[in-house]
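[Automated response] Your request has been received and processed.

Submitted sequence:
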Amino acid sequence: MEKLAIEGGYPVRNSKIYYGKQTIEADDVQAVVNTIVSDYITCGPKVDELENELCKYTNAKYAVAVSNGTAALHCACIAAGIGPGDEVITTPITFAASANCVLYCGGKVVFADINEKTYNIDPKSIEDKITDKTKAIIAVDFTGQAVEIEEIKQICKKHNLIFIEDSAHSISTKYKGQQIGSLADMTTFSFHPVKTITGGEGGAILTNNEKLYKKLVLAHTHGITHDSLLMSIENPEPWYYEQIFLGYNYRITDFQAALITNQLSKILRFSNRRKEIVKKYNEEFSKINELIIPYNIKESDTCNHLYVLRLNLNKLKCNRKEFFEAMCAENIQPQIHYIPVYWFPYYQSLGFKRGECPIAEKVYESILSLPLYPKMTDKDVDDVIHAVKKVINYYRIVR
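Generated structure:
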């Protein structure tokens, strides 16, 4: 039997392959260079262009580009009017920003459990968590798979709640044939380097609601406006502006916007490559009893940001940590997405305790994310598959 690298054998590959990596090409570099040497490097035409292109791509009426995905979530909560005494329901299997944005506004986070198949927030658990203080739901398209949008929209309509879709993972996903971005009251995107398209950092909020849009614009620019219709005086001087509420500096630069816009023009190619890799993984790993491949609802035409593999630990002579370390020894660097948010010391200090979402905690204990990004070669993909099989064979319980 082939030895693991950590046991003194040779690793599957000599160089490390990480779970995610940006794809930056010559035309991306040129788009940034052209903008840096132009007259505007912030608050300029490239930001407007990005917002327009996002609207075209998603069929949303309005888009506001911001500095990062966390800023997008914060602005969405501001526009939703979240404040002290308000409760917002979200999932614990997400990056902390999905919950932190509620706390920034003085609201209270309520965690609903996940569906054990999809790993997305469970609409039934959402219903169980609703109180007379609930004001919004932040549902996360975990790994890129769309949440059960129609079910969540019905819940929001029934209880008069605002639906914020955290689509940091799912910009190229479709739900029932419609592009993610215009289906919730507000949809947020992230353009972090490991996402489907990137600006280094960057984010956006999309909406079809003009009132929410105007609040989003103010929220990301200090609460300052040049719109005379919103000012306290009539016929203001041409240079005049007013701060009409306390906003933030969440503006994005023009050269980031130029990079994201250029990447957006290639999103179909990036998405198709991700789908090819996911298909290959699924074909190979579905044959292995010790593994559980991702489950996808029929409504979601998913572009995976993450490929999350679940270990059937009852059939392996190892725990998740040992499996993780063995993969690293093979020079395949996985990652864990995500530690339940309320396990963190800060959230524990707020009164949250382990056990609040038992399905989420059960799933967390056995998942890890494998490398997935467009620049992966076929050999890279084969090396990942080889490494997984090698580790499985080593830790397999012979029955």
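Summary generated for your ticket: The chain has two domains: 5-22+267-395, 26-264. The chain has a mean pLDDT of 97.
If you did not submit this request, please reply to this message.
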